[in-house]
Amino acid sequence: MRVVGHAVAALTAAAALPVAAGALLLQPRWRIGLDERLGRSPEVATGAVWIHAASVGEILAARRLVDALRARGHSVFTTTATLDGRDVMRRARPDVPCHLAPIDHPWCVESTLRRLAPAALVIVETELWPVRIAAAERRGVPVLLVSARLSDRSFPRYRRLRRLAGPTLRRIRRVGARTELDRDRFVSLGVPADRIEITGDLKLEPVEQAAPLSPDLSEVLGTRPLVVAGSTHPGEEEQVLDALSAAKGAQESALVIAPRHVQRAIEVERLVRSRGRSVRRRTTSQPRPLAAGEVLILDTVGELAAVYARATAAFVGGTLVPVGGHNVLEPASAGCPVLHGPYIANIRHAVELLEACDAARIVKGVADLASALSEILGDPEAAAKRGERAIAMLREHRGCTDRTAELVDAVLSENAAN
């Protein structure tokens, strides 16, 4: 870094130090992996492709690209912004290094780039950290954005901050956009059109084989009709519980609630008990089948996709409260009919595809959700057909991973030739 860069980095570090120290005292969990966030991640082979994804959903999508690039002979390492994402990737691909991404501060980023010397930085979706991207460009490391999206919520923000975001976007060597709309939005923000290809959404790539349920979890879920509320936020669990109580034909069903943040498990458990329902947590549950009306709190990471495969109906959270929605494709790829609320800014493309084949339905509150659950639980054959249509739709999107891997290959070849 130049002298001015060092001075700015030192000033920002000094200014942030008291805040960071206080945060670490108040939140001991933030101390986990701190060395990685400071740019001192364990050594990996230099010259590997660096794939970065924000959290659990993105890193699970990225693992398909990891597999495709390794099959083409490339060495790969991965980073993620969250402990949950890191843990999921380490379990899914234990032979692929996965660490927490460095803080977007010059010292942390430069330390990572200097030690690991990646062949390319591949960013999944829209993790546009300006220091990281600028530092990679300075070192001749090409930056790619893949499965790239600008949501209804984020696009207006980037447009308002176009002068600030423009330099970062122009440093990106290639963009593999999900859709034509995403491509047009990137162009409007200043990314040259000839740098953008439509490669598709990695999350839409069909899963070849559903993750199996562990034997003990399979025993707990049993064989009765199962409603799964996945990735829920405060304000949604109450509505799911009320809707299930009001739904016709739900008396023999059981409910699984998977809060988006597993730290909320005790809070959700208290809520369920206050509604007079029997409740268990996955991590403390005895291996006996759920009884009619009983609730299981899924307070683990990485098991939700397998649970969806056993579900009769799935509600996907972050949609009845203004969050923007979470992964509706996990239950769809398991052949489960999907219910979601009106807040879908982050998942609009996936929802539109599912609704077009009648595999997903919007619910705007307790009454709607109760009606939808009554319909699904009352006619399981029709619900199964909706799930089959979802699987068929996803098969039509096969090939995104290969197109994305080809884009990465092309950039690596261009960079090697220059």
Please, could you describe this protein's structure?
Helix 3 packs parallel to helix 4, helix 3 packs across helix 18 and helix 5 crosses helix 6. The longest helix is centred in the N-terminal third of the chain and has 24 residues, at about 5-25. By secondary structure, the protein is of the alpha/beta class. Strand 4 (about 120-125), helix 6 (about 130-140) and strand 5 form a beta-alpha-beta unit. It has a seven-stranded parallel beta sheet, with helices on both faces. It has helices spanning about 5-25, 35, 55-70, 85-90, 105-115, 130-140, 155-160, 160-170, 180-190, 215-220, 235-245, 265-275, 305-310, 330-335, 350-355, 365-380, 380-395, 400-415; strands at about 50-55, 75-80, 100, 120-125, 145-150, 175, 195-200, 225-230, 255-260, 280, 295, 315, 340, 360. It has 18 helices and 14 strands.
The poorly predicted ranges are: 3-26
Count of the separate structural domains: 2
Instruction: Please tell me the CATH architecture of the largest domain by its name.
Output: 3-Layer(aba) Sandwich
Categorize the overall geometry. Answer: globular
Which sheet architecture does the biggest sheet show?
Answer: 7 strands, parallel
Cross-sheet strand order for the largest sheet: 3-2-1-4-5-6-7
What CATH calls the topology of the largest domain is Rossmann fold
**Please, what is the CATH homologous superfamily of the largest domain?**
3-Deoxy-D-manno-octulosonic-acid transferase, N-terminal domain
- Overall CATH class of the largest domain: Alpha Beta
Amino-to-carboxy terminus distance: 23 Å
In angstroms, what is the radius of gyration?
22 Å
Q: Indicate the structural class.
A: alpha/beta
Q: Average pLDDT value?
A: 89
In DSSP terms, counting alpha (H) and pi (I) runs of 4 or more, how many helices?
18
